Amino acid sequence: MNFLFAWRYFKSKKSTNAINIIAWVSVSAVIVGTASLIVVLSVFNGFEDLVKSLYATFYTDLKVIPAKGKTIQLSAEQLRQLGSMPGVRSYSLVMEEKALLQNGEAQTIVYLKGVDSAYTSVTSMAENVKVGAFQLGDESKPFAVLGVGIENALGLWSDRALMPLTVYLPKKGANLSVSDPMQSLSADNLYTAGAFAVQQDFDNKYVFTNLGFMKRMLNLGTDEYGGVEIALNADGEEDKLQEDITRLLGKEYKVLTRYQQNQGLYSIMQLEKWVIYGVLSLILVVAAFTMIGSLTMLVLEKQKDIQVLKAMGASDGRIQSIFISEGFLLATVGALAGTLLAFIICWAQVTFKLVELQGGSFVIDYYPVQFLARDFLLVLGTVVVVAFMASWYPAKKAAGERVELRS
Hints:
This protein is α+β, with helices and mostly antiparallel strands. It contains 13 helices and 12 strands. Helix 2 runs antiparallel to helix 13 (373-399) and helix 12 runs antiparallel to helix 13.
């Protein structure tokens, strides 16, 4: 019944044309606000999914690292138990350390990461090699796969290098000598096999080689490693297996999920999304003010109707519900139209790539879009709250109208 009255008031012609204009202005504001929120949140989802896919190339589902220090001790029995755990598809032993790479006069600081032969089964790094091949050599003749940023910094073609690079790594337990810093470093030759390109953070930072070479250079023990990177059989099992592996290995080890390995990045992405949501919600606040004006003028125009309804026994709550329903009706029309408009815009972007990314240095050349049901629910919930707040005062004013009986 309330929505029936609200619908009649909505479609009926008002005595003052300004009421119609303000009503449609408020609906238009809701349309723009709803469409803007959905489109921008969908674009953020697209970028977030893209970034996560890029980082998933480098970071595994789970990673075991030492709770203290740089290395962990893992026996053959512990590794066997880890590999036989249900849900664990594969694991790779790794060791990472800062190093100095030198090519003639050119030199740069890198993160040198030694990995075993199982590394290609826990990550897709080998698929991102742009030149050369993902060949790491062995302990006696190590090869390296460089990030393209490091390749440029050293001024070489990694798949054509005739001369090896010189790599310097800190000696285990050595104290830095002020008079001769080189005494605290181990040096050896490192041949290049190729270059990878994943994402700028990795391309300018990492160099891969074999684990045996790293252990020899750092003078590590047989069962001593920097960490274990683990790939799982299915998504959604990280939390359970994280607890299982923690129980298996003990408190001397930390087991991190992919999110925890990049917690700072993911937190910033979520914060940016909420800030944008808050800023764009101001459009709906503007819509709320126009809605208040529209409903207030409607209450003034429908004073006689209110008098008649009250004379027929309608309660103040009934009158208030009618005008709150009117506010919800205005918001619903705007929200549905805005959602449709957002669908059309996002579909056109996905299909025709209308808005391109400038610069030409990105993985993709257009703004990505991804719909998520929770974003639609968030936007619609916001519209409902705004509609209720905007219609509360005019509806209360209408309910407070006194019945004046005239003879």
